[in-house]
Design goal:
With about 400 residues, the chain is of the alpha/beta class. The protein contains 13 helices and 14 strands.
Length: about 400
Amino acid sequence: MSAMRILHLGKYYAPERGGIERYTEALAEACVRSGDAVAALVHQRPGRWRGTVEHLGGVEVRRAGCLAAPLYTPLSPTFPLALGGALDAFQPDILHLHFPNPSCFAALASPAARHRPWIVHWHADVPPDGPDWRLRAAYRLYRPFEQAVLRRAGAIVATSTAYLDASVALRPWRAKVEVIPLGIGPAALDAAATDAAPRWPPGTGLRLLAVGRLSHYKGFGVLLQALAQLPHARLLLVGSGECEAALHAQAAELGLGHRVEFAGSLDDGALHAAYAAADAFVLPSLDRSEAFGMVLLEAMRAGLPIVASRIPGSGVGEVVADGGSGLLAPPGDAAALASRIGELDDPQLRAGLGQVGFARWQANYTLERSAAAFRTLYQRVLASDTTA
């Protein structure tokens, strides 16, 4: 397979730690190891107005200035100029657009971008019927541009069949959608960092681990309600976000202060150590905003049994095989979640689910497998491109 020049357009990049950002970094570096030249055009953190260019893991990372990020959307008036500069300097063969991201609409107005083939990586829908009226109103303006990008794309990638089947936005373009699951590589433990691993609250019960942004859709409030029904279980909650203060208050109100540890954000070494020390992993997300769940792959790689939400139209139920690599519960149902977690008091069940999960990760969700599928897709789109 011949080498290519690939330009990613995304929201953020390392050291930002969201699932999309971590996967983009891993995929880019995997392609570099395969001989490709890779660059990424993303945003600075909100409030940093000056653009930068740096090299991380062999990837040229260009960050456009970002004024703010209302509704999780970076506002960057200079992104179109940065795109022009990246196209001129890097001369990519193909563009890899990560959605949702309004900044990617700059490619529609760029002759240099339209002269090259695109693939659209569909990480998640913008829900047109979500609870936030501001998001519903913004989507009315966003949708025509979204559909124009999908029309122009040489290929579209969904992360799971379940998410594709439920996506109204992708429905007109299903003929050019390919499903490529996300993937992660083997854990690269930094032995020096494992000493900094957070501690579970004291006790002898199950050590539960949950990891993610402390946002409403992650369902951590439901997890705290479930924990109140499991008197011997202990929870390590890793992450930060806008719901952090409310979750602290809820834990105190439920009398869980001695059984919940809020660890905040962790570096990779400490996070790997937390996975290694846990008895089980819990993902209690509430809706399709949890499109796939990269943290599920991290738990499977660590050999942990999983309890997760059975979310209609999400990839979570594809990643976690109910009764195989984990246990599923209805989203938002604290009693059902507590019941499923309680089943893991059986050490033989925990061991069996963890072994199946590890094997499932190795068979279906490795970075090597995912990156190879993308490189094959890049080559196919390049071979069939008629934009030049």
